[in-house]
Amino acid sequence: MATKQKQKPKKQKAVEQKKASAEKSPSPKEGIVMHAGASRNELMMTAKERGVKNFRVLNKRELSDVLKNIGDQKAVDAIVAGAVARWKSGWGSKKDKATAKS
Q1: What pTM, to 2 d.p., does this model score?
Q2: Which range marks the domain in which residue 57 is found?
Q3: How many whole angstroms from its chain centre is CA 49?
Q4: Which of 5, 43, 75, 79 lies at a C-alpha separation of 20 to 30 Å from 98?
Q5: What is the 3-state secondary structure (H, E, C) of 23-38?
Q6: pLDDT grade, residue 70 (50/70/90)?
Q7: What's the number of domains the chain is made of?
């Protein structure tokens, strides 16, 4: 029985992890500048953490713009609205697409 190590209770571990993550994350008003070679996936994960709606329909440039302007909600909403409109325009009936091509 002397070989047993003291373990912290699970609740205490969770509280310590939350404190550590809260200290690392910048305030929601600050813009995030990712490194130049950040992949779209990295940008999407960061946007998801920041609570950006419809982040999946944004392209890489839009994601970087949104993360730079995260404090300016109007700019973020305008970028996301444009991306959503572009995404919705791709969903139509075959008949509509056939007439649009000719």
Answers
A1: 0.56
A2: 31-93
A3: 5
A4: 79
A5: HHCCCCCCCCCCCCCC
A6: confident
A7: 1
